[in-house]
Structure formats: structure tokens, C-alpha cells
Write a structure and sequence with these properties.
Bound molecules: iron/sulfur cluster
Number of strands: 10
Helix content: 40-55%
Oligomer: single chain
Strand content: 5-15%
Shape: elongated
Strand order of the largest sheet: 1-8
Structural class: alpha+beta
Largest sheet: 2 strands, antiparallel
Order of helices and strands: EHHEEEEHEEEHHHHHEHHE
Length: 251
């Protein structure tokens, strides 16, 4: 993550989902949209999928126009960040009236001013001198506030991503192989290319995939991304999620 963090009270660094917190963000707060500039927003594969579909552009165009892909030394998965405007460092999607991609805004923007700890608790990543919404007299329970942020599919996809990352860290497989790196980037971040790869190469001639699943991934990008995670686990670690088709016997 992403947004700049400020010193926060230690007591606020491990909040259970049942914990109440005082917060309201609206056009009326004097800091409105101030948190949408001069920040690093790391995008997950699901963030990319949602935003490019919301904008009705291809993955290629989205990645070219709106992101920076930063390779990480000795790691297969790069960091993909939203490319802030060069001049004023603002997010390319911020307007005077708020976020122009609000319904598909990325995970860190949905979570702000909270972030999630590894143990499933939450913490405030700013304070009420930066985020005046924390001074508003409106109390929310974290879990119901998160429900309103429609965070569930993001968390499900974060689980897929962290399970892949954990496995990659323990198997230092192919990390310096540019071909493997390109395949990983394509499968996770360039879903349109991945779809093309699955349906226009010999992919389905070589792998035995449930025909019902093939039909689903043709029309459902969420399921296609889940399929991409499975394919990477199969290709990188030999996880038995697919089977290689037997070659027809020749005379
Ligand atoms: S994506 Fe939307 S909410 Fe997130 S920083 Fe940009 S304008 Fe703000
Ligand atoms: S700093 Fe806080 S209150 Fe201000 S716009 Fe951002 S989230 Fe809303």
C-alpha cells in the first residue's frame, strides 16, 4: 500500500472488524480529494481488471496510459502503480467533485483511511490533522463500513495473489527468466492478452480444461483472472489444477 502514512496512535494500530471508528468523507470536508495526490497507489491484478473494464478500454491501453510497471529485484511479480500526473502529482482520475472511477476505484482507495494488517485486524493510516473526515461526528463499525466499500471481491482476489506470492517466495523459480516474467505480467495484469493467448494459441489443444469452465472464462473476467492464477500455479509449481492432454498416437 500506498497512501502516505502519518504517526497514528498505537492503540489504533490493531482494530478488530467490530471496532467503531469515527469517520465521514464527503464533498463538504475541506480536505476533499487532498488524499488523491502525491501518493503511491499500488494496483492489484483485480484493480487493473475493474478499472480498465469501467473505462471500457483494453488492458494494454490502461497499462500504457495510467500505470508504471516497476520490476522488483529477484521477484517475478512487478509492482504496478497508478501513474500520477507529472505536473501536479494528482491522480489522473481525480476531479473537483471526486473520483471519476468511483465505482471501480482501487482497493487502497476503498480502504482509506484504514489498512489491513497481516493478522486480519485493521489500522488507521492517517490522523485527523490530515484526514478531516476523522473529525466528523459519524461513527461506523469497521465491518459494516467495509461492506459499504464493496471490498469482498477485492479481498478474495488478494487471497489468490498472496497465495501465489507466498509460493513464489519459497520457490525461487525462473525469477531471472524474462520469458517467464512476461508470461506472469500478461496473466495477471493484461487480461485481454491472456484471453487472446488462451483462445487463439494452442493452449486449449495442450491442456485439458473443463468445457464448462472454458465457456465461463470466455465471458467472465473475474473467473478468467482466477483461471490465470490457477494456470500460473500449474505452470510454475506443477499444481494439479490442469492436465496435459495426451498426444494422439501416430501410426
Ligand atoms: S482512483 Fe479515485 S479515489 Fe483513488 S486516488 Fe484516484 S481519484 Fe482518488
Ligand atoms: S483526506 Fe479523508 S476526509 Fe479528506 S478527502 Fe481524503 S478520505 Fe476524505
Amino acid at each position: 500500500m500506498t497512501f502516505k502514512t502519518s504517526n497514528t496512535n498505537n492503540k489504533k494500530s490493531r482494530l478488530e472488524s467490530t471496532h467503531p471508528f469515527q469517520f465521514n468523507c464527503s464533498l463538504g470536508v475541506s480536505c476533499f480529494t487532498k488524499c488523491c495526490q502525491d501518493i503511491n497507489i499500488v494496483l492489484t491484478p483485480y484493480d487493473v481488471l475493474r478499472i480498465k473494464n469501467g473505462l471500457a478500454i483494453s488492458s494494454d491501453e490502461f497499462l500504457d496510459r495510467y500505470t508504471l510497471i516497476i520490476p522488483k529485484e529477484n521477484l517475478l511479480i512487478p509492482i504496478v502503480v497508478l501513474h500520477m500526473n507529472e505536473t501536479d502529482k494528482k491522480c489522473p482520475f481525480v476531479t473537483d467533485t471526486g473520483c471519476s472511477i468511483y465505482s471501480d476505484r482501487p482497493w487502497p482507495c476503498r480502504m482509506y483511511p484504514l489498512d489491513m494488517n497481516n493478522d486480519g485486524t485493521y489500522r488507521l493510516i492517517t490522523n485527523d490533522s490530515h484526514c478531516l473526515g476523522l473529525k466528523e461526528e459519524s461513527t461506523k463499525i469497521i465491518s459494516s463500513w467495509l461492506e459499504g466499500q464493496e471490498i469482498d471481491p477485492y479481498e478474495e482476489m488478494n487471497e489468490y495473489l498472496s497465495s501465489l506470492t507466498i509460493q513464489l517466495q519459497s520457490n525461487k523459480l525462473g525469477i531471472n527468466n524474462p520469458k517467464i516474467q512476461q508470461m506472469v505480467i500478461m496473466a495477471l495484469y493484461n487480461l485481454d492478452k491472456f484471453r487472446e493467448f488462451v483462445f487463439t494459441s494452442t493452449f486449449l489443444d495442450r491442456l485439458d480444461v473443463d468445457p464448462e469452465r472454458i465457456e465461463i472464462i470466455k465471458r467472465d473476467d473475474y473467473e478468467l483472472l482466477v483461471f490465470a492464477f490457477d494456470w500460473l500455479k500449474f505452470g510454475l509449481f506443477g499444481k494439479k489444477v490442469f492436465w496435459v492432454k495426451e498426444k494422439p498416437k501416430t501410426e
